[in-house]
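Here is the promised in-class demo. Please do not try to memorize the tokens; focus on the logic of going from shape to residues.
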């Protein structure tokens, strides 16, 4: 276990409660605890549910003291703030990447597992390395997430203390989130994005790709939804910043 540096205060807007894949529906903590009840922790796991629209954590009835929290319900920012300050930015980016992939097309991945390893602060003002595995606990009728189930376990004994890795597993594919953003868009979407960045209209793009203007507009709308941006200009900036197009 490593000694903690100076206390770090997490930046704002870190909970993903405003992500386009998050539901407006809120479940009462007691109902969530009942949903958690069948999940029994093993090997020192810490289990909790993140209630996205309420920005709350609801702890499993079987939880242990890994995080040092005894409250059955607490603000999600308490978990955000114990992330190592050197890890926080990458953890946020990997989690954002996972959310964009999961909810780029509503209902596409009703089943998934998001795993990430990073350091957190625990009792005694020390840092340990954990593996956090998150699955959906409840989705709404539109496929948007209401709450998730996360399992956290201390993996400090595996060394690689500063290593941050993230991956997303769906029923048909595993995404290495540490790799470039290329897999965010389909081959056809990348082709359209290439022409959009060069100022082509939907009609011209359709002519070049032998598809209809309506199909081009549909792909454009899907890309806007996947990236959670407002318009084509922001979409192009998003793709350029991440090296998806040049």
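The designed amino acids, position by position:
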């Amino acid at each position: 276990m490593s000694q903690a540096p100076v206390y770090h205060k997490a930046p704002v807007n870190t909970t993903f409660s405003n992500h386009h894949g998050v539901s407006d529906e809120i479940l009462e903590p007691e109902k969530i605890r009942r949903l958690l009840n069948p999940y029994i922790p093993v090997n020192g796991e810490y289990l909790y549910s993140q209630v996205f629209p309420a920005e709350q954590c609801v702890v499993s009835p079987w939880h242990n003291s890994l995080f040092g929290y005894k409250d059955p319900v607490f603000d999600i920012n308490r978990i955000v703030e114990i992330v190592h300050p050197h890890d926080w930015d990458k953890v946020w980016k990997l989690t954002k990447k996972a959310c964009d992939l999961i909810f780029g097309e509503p209902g596409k991945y009703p089943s998934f597992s998001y795993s990430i390893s990073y350091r957190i602060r625990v009792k005694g003002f020390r840092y340990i390395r954990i593996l956090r595995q998150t699955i959906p606990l409840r989705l709404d009728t539109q496929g948007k997430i209401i709450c998730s189930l996360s399992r956290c376990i201390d993996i400090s004994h595996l060394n690689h203390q500063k290593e941050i890795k993230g991956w997303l597993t769906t029923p048909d594919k595993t995404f290495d989130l540490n790799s470039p953003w290329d897999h965010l868009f389909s081959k056809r979407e990348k082709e359209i994005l290439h022409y959009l960045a060069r100022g082509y209209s939907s009609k011209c793009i359709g002519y070049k790709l032998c598809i209809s203007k309506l199909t081009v507009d549909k792909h454009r709308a899907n890309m806007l939804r996947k990236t959670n941006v407002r318009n084509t200009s922001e979409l192009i900036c998003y793709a350029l910043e991440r090296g998806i197009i040049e």
